[in-house]
Amino acid sequence: MCLEKLYHLQKKFSKHEQICWSYQRLQQFITYKAKLAGIHIRYVNPRLTSKRCPSCGKINNVKGRTYTCRCGFHHHRDVVGAMNILHAPEIL
């Protein structure tokens, strides 16, 4: 299982504290349950996961929910992020 290592949510607290806390708690809960089930968690860097084309690797600015690249690849932005997270190197 792959999760983004959310550095900025762990160190920064502001008006978004409750939102940040909920993402962090969700990640902790997923990690806890995965360990109970014997599932390895792999953490990856979240940088550019929704901007990098999974087909050609080009960085694109994303407008709206649909990701479109000049190479012809297009998909929902969340799917692009998930594909890039799956193939990203693990942070040790």
TrEMBL record:
> Which InterPro entries does the UniProt record give?
Cas12f1-like_TNB, RNA-guided_DNA_endo/Transpos
Top-level taxon of origin: Bacteria
Write out the GO MF terms.
Answer: DNA binding
According to the record, the segments passing through the membrane are none
Q: Does the keyword GTP-binding apply?
A: no
What keywords does the record list, in alphabetical order? DNA-binding
Output the Pfam families linked to this UniProt entry: Cas12f1-like_TNB
The Cas12f1-like TNB domain covers 23-85
Protein name as it appears in the record: Transposase
Q: Which organism is it from?
A: Clostridium innocuum
